[in-house]
Design goal:
heterodimer; A: about 500 residues; mainly alpha; 18 helices; about 70% helix; B: about 80 residues; about 0% strand
C-alpha cells in the first residue's frame, strides 16, 4: 500500500516516465494516423489515475471512485435534461449531493458515528473496521462541486464521460487536492495547451515540493513523533513547545510540498491547478491565515457552504419565530456551520470537531477585537497572537484523541509539575536546530524579499535557479533512496 | 436609485471613481471577499427593492454577473 506516493522512487522513475511518454506520444500518433488525440489523451490520464488509485491504496476501493464518477455523470445529465423543471432539478441535486455525502459517511464517518451511539445510548452495535479509502474527502468534494456548478446554471453538464472521469480522478490531485472547482477546470479538460515552458516549470515545481517533503517535513518527523508520543509527565515545558513548533512546520512542509508536486504535475500535462498555500505563517490575523492556508478547501467551503447558508433561504427566520434573521446573525450562523463542517471534514474524531469550533470562536472574537492605531503594532501583535493560536490549534489535529491533546496542553504550560528544561530538550534541540532554522526561513517569502532588494541580472538568476533545482533534486533523491518514502499527513483526511 | 457600480464600490468601501468593468469581481478585487459578497447581495436587494434566489446570489460575484441577474428580472 502507498507505493505510488509522489516522493517514492517507484512513482518518479516508473509511473511518471510512463505517464509522460504515453501522454506526449498520443498526439504524434494522432498526426500520423489522423485521429483526434485529446479524447485519447484524456482516456489515458483516466486509466493512469485509476491505476494510481488502485496501486496507491486498497485496490478494491477503486470501485468507489468509479461509482462516484458514474453517479455524478448521470446525475449531471439528468439535471441538464430537466433544466426547465425547477422541482426536478432540486430533487436531482438533493439526491446527488446526499448520495455523495452518504458514500463519504459510510467509508469515513460510520465507525465514529457507531462508537458515539454506543457511548451515549445503551446499545452495542458492532463497529465496522476497514481501511480508510484514500482521498475520499477530496474526490467527493470535486464531485459535489460539479453537481452544484451545473445546478447554478453557469455551465452545462459534461456530455463526455471521459472528461468528467478525468475531472474527478486526475491523479496529481486525487489523494490530497488541491480541490479544484468544476467551473475553473471545465475548459482545461478540452482546451489546455501543453508546451515545453510549462512542462519545465512543472518539473521545477515538482522538485521544489519534493524538497519540502523530503528535506524538511521528513527530517522533522522524528522530533514531532517523539514529542507527541511521549506527551506524558516526562515531557518538559520546553520540549512541548519545541514539539508544537516542529509539528507546525512539519504539517506545512508536508502538505504544501504535496500541493507543489500536484501543481507541478498538472502543469506537465498542461493543466493549471490552483494554488493551495500563500505563506500562511506570515498571517497577522486568523481571517488572513485562512486566506493563505489550504486555500482551495476554504474556497470550496465558501462557495458551497458559507455563502449558501448566508444568502440562501434556509435561515430566513430566527428559530421558533417568524422574525426575519438579520444579516450579521446569518453570517454568524453561516460561520458556525462552515467551521463545524471544516472540522469534521478533516477527520472523524472529536478533536477535529473541537478544532473546527476553536476556529469559529477565534474568527468571531477577532471581529470584535479592538485594533491599535499604530499599523506596525497592529500587524506585530496580530502576527504573534495568530501564529500562537494556529499552533495551539494544530496540537488538536496532531494528537490522536482529545485526552492526548489535553495532556499536551498541560505540558505546554507546565501544569503537570514537570521541569521547564530537561536533557531531552537539549538533545532534541541540538539535533534539529538547523532544520528548524531552515523551516522557519523557508516558510517565509524570504527569496522574494531578497530579490526585491538585490539586483541580479536575469541570466544569473536563471543559472542560480537551475543549480538550486538540480541540487535540490539530487539531495532529495539521496534521502529518498536512503530513507525510503514516508506517507503524506493529509492522506489520512 | 444607485447604479450597480455605485452599490458595489460603496459596499467594498472603494472610491466611487475606481475604474471597474464587467469582469470586476471576486477574482480581481481583493476586497470582494465572502462577507463583501453577502453585503453586495443584500445592498442590491435594498437598492432595487427585490429579493434574490440562492443561485442568483451565488452568480452575483462579478459586476457582469450582477447585471445579468438584474437584467433577468427586468430591472436594468
Amino acid at each position: 500500500m502507498n507505493q505510488v506516493i509522489f516522493s517514492s522512487t517507484i512513482f518518479m522513475f516508473l509511473f511518471l516516465p510512463i505517464a509522460i511518454l504515453g501522454y506526449f506520444l498520443i498526439p504524434i500518433l494522432g498526426r500520423l494516423f489522423k485521429f483526434k488525440s485529446r479524447t485519447l489523451q484524456n482516456f489515458y490520464l483516466v486509466l493512469l489515475s485509476l491505476g494510481f488509485y488502485t496501486w496507491g491504496g486498497t485496490p478494491r476501493y477503486v470501485l468507489i471512485l468509479i461509482a462516484s464518477i458514474i453517479l455524478n455523470y448521470f446525475m449531471g445529465r439528468w439535471m441538464e435534461k430537466a433544466r426547465d423543471q425547477k422541482k426536478m432539478v432540486g430533487f436531482v441535486v438533493t439526491f446527488a449531493v446526499v448520495a455523495n455525502l452518504l458514500i463519504l459517511f459510510a467509508f469515513k464517518y460510520l465507525p465514529f458515528a457507531i462508537t458515539n451511539i454506543n457511548f451515549f445510548l445503551p446499545t452495542d452495535i458492532p463497529i465496522p473496521s476497514f481501511p480508510f479509502p484514500l482521498g475520499i474527502s477530496f474526490f467527493t468534494f470535486q464531485a459535489i462541486s460539479y453537481i452544484m456548478d451545473v445546478k447554478r446554471g453557469r455551465i452545462g453538464a459534461q456530455k463526455n464521460f471521459i472528461d468528467l472521469a478525468l475531472y474527478i480522478s486526475f491523479f496529481p490531485r486525487l489523494l490530497q487536492g488541491p480541490i479544484t472547482r468544476y467551473q475553473t477546470m471545465v475548459d482545461q479538460l478540452r482546451n489546455r495547451k501543453e508546451n515545453f515552458k510549462d512542462f519545465s516549470e512543472g518539473c521545477c515545481r515538482f522538485v521544489l515540493g519534493l524538497g519540502k517533503k523530503v528535506l524538511v517535513a521528513t527530517l522533522l518527523s522524528d522530533l514531532v513523533t517523539t514529542a507527541f508520543t511521549d506527551a506524558a509527565p516526562v515531557l518538559s515545558v520546553s520540549t512541548a513547545w519545541l514539539g508544537m513548533f516542529a509539528a507546525s512546520f512539519y504539517i506545512y512542509f508536508d502538505f504544501s510540498g504535496y500541493s507543489d508536486m500536484a501543481i507541478g504535475l498538472g502543469k506537465m500535462f498542461g493543466f493549471t491547478i490552483p494554488e493551495n498555500f500563500n505563506y500562511p505563517y506570515i498571517a497577522s490575523s486568523i481571517a488572513d491565515y485562512w486566506r493563505r492556508w489550504h486555500m482551495t478547501m476554504m474556497a470550496w467551503f465558501k462557495d458551497y457552504v458559507f455563502l449558501p447558508v448566508a444568502i440562501g433561504p434556509g435561515f430566513k427566520y430566527y428559530p421558533f419565530t417568524k422574525k426575519i434573521m438579520t444579516t450579521p446573525h446569518k453570517i454568524v450562523v453561516a460561520t458556525f456551520i462552515t467551521w463545524a463542517c471544516t472540522g469534521i471534514w478533516h477527520g472523524a474524531s472529536w478533536n477535529f470537531v473541537i478544532w473546527g469550533m476553536y476556529f469559529f470562536v477565534l474568527m468571531e472574537v477577532e471581529t470584535f477585537m479592538p485594533k491599535f492605531k499604530n499599523k506596525f503594532l497592529n500587524i506585530s501583535v496580530g502576527f504573534i497572537l495568530t501564529q500562537l493560536a494556529v499552533k495551539f490549534g494544530q496540537v488538536l489535529t496532531r494528537s490522536t484523541d482529545i485526552s492526548q491533546a489535553f495532556n499536551y496542553y498541560l505540558c505546554l504550560f507546565g501544569l503537570k509539575g514537570q521541569p521547564i528544561v530537561d536533557d531531552k530538550f537539549i538533545f532534541l534541540f541540538n539535533q534539529n536546530k538547523w532544520i528548524l532554522l531552515v523551516a522557519f526561513i523557508a516558510s517565509m517569502p524570504t527569496i522574494q524579499f531578497v530579490l526585491k532588494r538585490i539586483k541580479i541580472n536575469k541570466t544569473l538568476q536563471d543559472v542560480i535557479y537551475t543549480i538550486w533545482i538540480v541540487g535540490l533534486f539530487v539531495i532529495s533523491m539521496i534521502y529518498v533512496t536512503k530513507n525510503g518514502y514516508t506517507p503524506f499527513l493529509y492522506g489520512r483526511f | 436609485m444607485k447604479t450597480v457600480e455605485e452599490v458595489v464600490l460603496e459596499v467594498l468601501n472603494l472610491p466611487l471613481d475606481t475604474p471597474v468593468d464587467d469582469n470586476f469581481g471576486v477574482d480581481t478585487c481583493e476586497q470582494w471577499n465572502s462577507l463583501a459578497q453577502i453585503g453586495i447581495v443584500v445592498s442590491m436587494g435594498n437598492n432595487f427593492d427585490v429579493s434574490f434566489s440562492l443561485d442568483e446570489g451565488m452568480n452575483m460575484d462579478t459586476i457582469g454577473g450582477i447585471k445579468k441577474v438584474l437584467q433577468g428580472k427586468g430591472l436594468i
